Amino acid sequence: MADEVVVLDFWASPFAMRVKLALSEKGITYECKPQDLLNKGPLLLQANPVHKKIPVLIHNGRSICESLIIVRYIDEVWTHVSPLLPSDPYQRSQALFWADYIEKQVYDLGKRVYVAQEDQAEAKEKLIQCLKTLETELGDKPYFGGDGIGFVDVALLPFTTWFYTYERSGNFSIQESCPKLIAWVERCRQKQSVSDALPHPHKIYDFYLLFKEALGVK
Amino acid sequence: MEGAVVLLDFWPSMFGMRTRIALAEKEIKYEYSEQDLWNKGELLLQMNPVHKKIPVLIHNGKPVCESLNQVQYIDEVWNDRAPLLPANTYKRANARFWADFVDKKLYDLGSKIWKTKGEEQEAAKKEFIDCLKLLEGELGDSLYFGGKDFGYVDVALVPFYCWFYAYEQCGNFSIEAECPKLIAWVKRCMQKESVAKSLVDREKVYEFVLQLKKLYGIE
């Protein structure tokens, strides 16, 4: 029986990108259903009645919500190909810790940078500190997952499509402060699975310019 | 699997209580180490340099941080007894979703209830009750969120009960009146030894909140 895999999506959402990246890494065929976030349709509201947000993964008719939970689900269902989480419980707890760190920090700090209010300078500094901490965690490994793309890589990579937007709106360079992290981004982008799943940063910037108001930029 | 287990914790923390419950469910012997959060010790800062927060679970000298992460780790390492997460992949994702919902909502809303007054407090109270009602809906007619058995979502949520009395006093409302099914579920959980010995006295939590209010200059 063929699996039916549907992703309720919004192309610029880093959270949705995580799901597409995980599916792409595993070579899973899926149907992408872009959603209108300003006018949410019945499918989305039915699939995610609690948060009413994308991404939602619908697997054989059943919905899974929250991007990192979806990625773990994908990893556990399609367990025999390209594992994202380590099999050792301690290593796994470390990967989950770093994914949670990214979850707690990057989106909010990045948003405070591009919304460009009075706290932008502080947000920029904290974002750089956060990325430097992640750089230290990466160390000399080619990927956070070690030799291959792992859970933490999937958690963070989508936000790198927004780096150009953060830099332009905040007038600073992430490359300058975090060259090793940018090297990691470039290494990942050379993989077909990654370049298939992630939009070009300039497209994200165009989106930001077009939708500044909707994004909360005054 | 064997090896020293230490828990760096702070007695009123609902997050620390989650880990205490998980350890008790699995009957794991451990050393409980009370931390002074206003004067953080070397061990805490060394074991959780990123967040500098409790709880920290130290197993064989290696730290695991973040309470839900700890509960999952405990469940995976001591996997021969009292399973907390379901075996079924979809049910497991669902359990993680609801534990994540508890994490995203209850602490911040609860904090607003005791820290604020007026319109802000009223809004927080309403949203808090709405969240508890959603959880009641998820519980349905089951004994526990885990179904017949006590599980991951039960562990994630039940410690918040210790703070309900403080929220009620500060917010002048009754959680039991709004969410009787949830309170009935709490009472079922409290009959389990692992829960009863891990949760703290709710009046002591209220006294602690009053001390915090004084400390932060909140009326």
TrEMBL record, chain A:
<dbReference type="Pfam" id="PF02798">
    <property type="entry name" value="GST_N"/>
</dbReference>
<dbReference type="InterPro" id="IPR010987">
    <property type="entry name" value="Glutathione-S-Trfase_C-like"/>
</dbReference>
<protein>
    <recommendedName>
        <fullName>Glutathione S-transferase</fullName>
        <ecNumber>2.5.1.18</ecNumber>
    </recommendedName>
</protein>
<feature type="domain" description="GST C-terminal">
    <location>
        <begin position="88"/>
        <end position="207"/>
    </location>
</feature>
<keyword id="KW-0808">Transferase</keyword>
<keyword id="KW-0963">Cytoplasm</keyword>
<dbReference type="InterPro" id="IPR004045">
    <property type="entry name" value="Glutathione_S-Trfase_N"/>
</dbReference>
<comment type="function">
    <text>Is involved in the conjugation of reduced glutathione to a wide number of exogenous and endogenous hydrophobic electrophiles.</text>
</comment>
<dbReference type="GO" id="GO:0009407">
    <property type="term" value="P:toxin catabolic process"/>
</dbReference>
<dbReference type="InterPro" id="IPR040079">
    <property type="entry name" value="Glutathione_S-Trfase"/>
</dbReference>
<dbReference type="Pfam" id="PF13410">
    <property type="entry name" value="GST_C_2"/>
</dbReference>
<dbReference type="InterPro" id="IPR045074">
    <property type="entry name" value="GST_C_Tau"/>
</dbReference>
<dbReference type="InterPro" id="IPR036249">
    <property type="entry name" value="Thioredoxin-like_sf"/>
</dbReference>
<feature type="domain" description="GST N-terminal">
    <location>
        <begin position="3"/>
        <end position="82"/>
    </location>
</feature>
<dbReference type="InterPro" id="IPR045073">
    <property type="entry name" value="Omega/Tau-like"/>
</dbReference>
<dbReference type="GO" id="GO:0006749">
    <property type="term" value="P:glutathione metabolic process"/>
</dbReference>
<dbReference type="GO" id="GO:0004364">
    <property type="term" value="F:glutathione transferase activity"/>
</dbReference>
<dbReference type="GO" id="GO:0005829">
    <property type="term" value="C:cytosol"/>
</dbReference>
<dbReference type="InterPro" id="IPR036282">
    <property type="entry name" value="Glutathione-S-Trfase_C_sf"/>
</dbReference>
<keyword id="KW-0216">Detoxification</keyword>
<comment type="similarity">
    <text>Belongs to the GST superfamily. Tau family.</text>
</comment>
Automatic annotation (TrEMBL), chain B:
<dbReference type="InterPro" id="IPR004045">
    <property type="entry name" value="Glutathione_S-Trfase_N"/>
</dbReference>
<comment type="similarity">
    <text>Belongs to the GST superfamily. Tau family.</text>
</comment>
<dbReference type="InterPro" id="IPR036249">
    <property type="entry name" value="Thioredoxin-like_sf"/>
</dbReference>
<dbReference type="InterPro" id="IPR040079">
    <property type="entry name" value="Glutathione_S-Trfase"/>
</dbReference>
<feature type="domain" description="GST C-terminal">
    <location>
        <begin position="88"/>
        <end position="208"/>
    </location>
</feature>
<comment type="function">
    <text>Is involved in the conjugation of reduced glutathione to a wide number of exogenous and endogenous hydrophobic electrophiles.</text>
</comment>
<keyword id="KW-0963">Cytoplasm</keyword>
<dbReference type="GO" id="GO:0006749">
    <property type="term" value="P:glutathione metabolic process"/>
</dbReference>
<dbReference type="GO" id="GO:0009407">
    <property type="term" value="P:toxin catabolic process"/>
</dbReference>
<dbReference type="InterPro" id="IPR045074">
    <property type="entry name" value="GST_C_Tau"/>
</dbReference>
<protein>
    <recommendedName>
        <fullName>Glutathione S-transferase</fullName>
        <ecNumber>2.5.1.18</ecNumber>
    </recommendedName>
</protein>
<keyword id="KW-0808">Transferase</keyword>
<dbReference type="Pfam" id="PF13410">
    <property type="entry name" value="GST_C_2"/>
</dbReference>
<feature type="domain" description="GST N-terminal">
    <location>
        <begin position="3"/>
        <end position="82"/>
    </location>
</feature>
<dbReference type="InterPro" id="IPR036282">
    <property type="entry name" value="Glutathione-S-Trfase_C_sf"/>
</dbReference>
<dbReference type="InterPro" id="IPR010987">
    <property type="entry name" value="Glutathione-S-Trfase_C-like"/>
</dbReference>
<dbReference type="InterPro" id="IPR045073">
    <property type="entry name" value="Omega/Tau-like"/>
</dbReference>
<keyword id="KW-0216">Detoxification</keyword>
<dbReference type="Pfam" id="PF02798">
    <property type="entry name" value="GST_N"/>
</dbReference>
<dbReference type="GO" id="GO:0004364">
    <property type="term" value="F:glutathione transferase activity"/>
</dbReference>
<dbReference type="GO" id="GO:0005829">
    <property type="term" value="C:cytosol"/>
</dbReference>
